[in-house]
Please model this.
Amino acid sequence: MDISDIFIGTETGNNSFRQTFPLKYANRHGLIAGATGTGKTITLQSLAEGFAKNGVPVFMADVKGDLGGIAQPSGGEDFISKRNEQIGFTDFKPQAFSVAFWDLFGEKGHPVRTTISEIGPVLLARMLELNETQEGVLNIAFRHADEKGLLLIDLKDLRALLNTIHENASEISAEYGQVSKPSIATIQRQLLKLEEQGADKFFGEPALELSDLMRTDMDGKGYINILAADKLMQSPRLYATFLLWLLSELFEDLPEAGDLPKPKLVFFFDEAHLLFTDAPKSLLEKIEQVVRLIRSKGVGIYFITQNPQDIPDSVLSQLGNRVQHALRAFTPQQQKFIKQAAQTYRANPAFKVEEVISDLSIGEALVSTLESGGAPSMVRRILIRPPESKVGPCSDDARRMATKADGVGNKYDATQDRDSAYEALKGKAQKATKQAEAAQTSSKPAKSGRANDGIGTKVVKSVVTSVTYSIGSALADTIFGTGRKSAAGRAGKAAVRNATTSILRGVLGSMSKR
Model:
């Protein structure tokens, strides 16, 4: 497939200048910013189409539910025709693109799953909104599971592990450090809250394989992977943590690629401010590291947000390709933000960026991309081209057809539940219970007849004892005589009596039991 830079529009008032995105520098990341309703979604959709045409797979989150139209061709509405005429876009060709729909809840696309072990304690702690102490306990739980060979796949595995740690808190505290039972209780409550939000469907198997996000279709075009995020956005931390996990997995699994003629994958992160809101320092450092280094793996990340100020400077400084739609200034603070945003662009002598940002029309943006040598180009005022696919949501029929045709349904639609920590700990508990019962049984004293004897039985035994003693005494007197008082006579008499008594007691005792 021939590689060509992505055409995104022409300069306002100058159709002869065609603004493009150079594929060679597309993995240097980018920013799409602007107030609500200024055209960010159109820009996002047009860029996604351009990457797909060049065989670059795309992953994007559909926050508002209006990106599914990429699976259908454009309807050629009046506003599209007018914009094409305005910018001289004569190559416009309505077309659908190969789309794979995904959904953490499995409702509007294939389920996206990962295991508890894969997401790890740091991201899970953020998802559960844990404090530092509670996160420490969670780290101990993961360490304990790792050393005991316990596989953590889903939420029931983690619950079973936490229950075990709670029951053995003293021993585990001595080995790993203080384990607070109230902290364990808090984690359990947060897990329940997460489950009520539907996140339990995210943890399980089969886990997502990244290679399934990096496919091309039969024509060599990149698949556009769309994550249904309209429901997911009701749990902002779950949304942000999931996307950060995905980025981290890409960073860890992909090999070094060096400078490529085009990216291996482009990742669009809508509502990017959620990634950084209330994020602890350790997490911000991880995000910065991933953004800085993942480009060497051939992955480009594009953040979509309302204001560039939503993104920390350490990350913003790494975003080389920028599309700035209109910003509105109704307060002194907002005016300050606009001034700061204007200062990040390479100046254009034809206009003042600070003044133009507030005057941009819908579908118009200030654009600066990386050019030869990786230096930022001079900022230009650009009319963004319309997408060649449908603008807005796709039809239910189109979604069903795309889901059946994408080739991954058989792999992910059915859930697997293999033996893991839950089953191992449950089996261990059952074995311990049986051993305890067996030990208790073996330690009980043998049942004594006296303990269960009734009154009648006790009377018979008393009579037997009395009779046998009397008969034994009589026999002894007959043999030795009643008057003998010597020690030998007394000993012999006692021996005869005892022997006789023992024999008769056995005989009469057997009779009494019948």
